[in-house]
């Protein structure tokens, strides 16, 4: 009886170890170094659910005001990815959604892009929510068995509604629930990836 139990436990352990090693390279965690450079706390997780398909979910959070520059926001961005060779390595295309909230102002971005005037951030504070969708292209380089480096760029549409304040610290609104449609880059990533 005891030998039979030992053999059953050993068989279960071998099956479990085989299942774990068979699922290796199916999960990854990552951080976007571009967000890290802007002091934005971020993390992502990716799961391969088919040989050429994976789903990636990333999120970021920034609650800081640095040198009177307000760049507070949070965002969640799920993405379905199709890989041209094998999931979590090489070329891929993706379709993503995004959504979150923001409170930004006193930032000097001296340009306009596709109908959005970023110069307005210098003299006003904008507080609101957003949601959108986009498509992306990327590539993941294998560094070693567990580490990858990934670059990705996305383009899409974002709808936002926001309140406008005359300065960074003011509490008096000058416009309320103002709508805006943005078309342009929706994702930029240089990810350091750990693959399980």
Summarize the structure.
With 196 residues, this protein is mainly β. The protein is built from two helices and eleven strands.
Written description of the protein model:
- The chain is mainly beta and 196 residues long.
- Helices cover 13% and strands 62% of the residues.
- The chain has two helices and eleven strands.
- The strands form two sheets. Strands 1-2-3-5-6-9-10-11 form an eight-stranded antiparallel barrel. It has a two-stranded antiparallel ribbon with strand order 7-8.
- β2 and β3 form a beta hairpin.
- It is elongated.
- The protein starts with a helix and ends with a strand.
- The relative contact order is 0.17.
What's the topology here?
Layout (H helix, E strand, L loop, with lengths): L1 H21 L4 E6 H5 L3 E10 L2 E10 L2 E2 L2 E15 L6 E16 L6 E2 L2 E2 L7 E18 L4 E19 L9 E21 L1
Antiparallel strand pairs: 1-2, 1-11, 2-3, 3-5, 4-5, 5-6, 6-9, 7-8, 9-10, 10-11
State the secondary-structure class. Answer: mainly beta
Q: What's the oligomerization state? A: single chain
Radius of gyration, in angstroms, nearest whole number = 22 Å
Alpha carbon gap, first and last residue: 38 Å
User: From N to C, what is the helix and strand string?
Assistant: HEHEEEEEEEEEE
Overall body shape: elongated
Mean of the pLDDT scores?
87
| E-strand count | 11
What does the largest sheet look like? 8 strands, antiparallel, barrel
Strand content: over 45%
Main sheet: strand order: 1-2-3-5-6-9-10-11
- What count of helical segments does DSSP give? 2
Task: List low-confidence stretches.
Answer: 12-23
User: Roughly how much helix do the residues carry, as a percent range?
Assistant: 10-25%
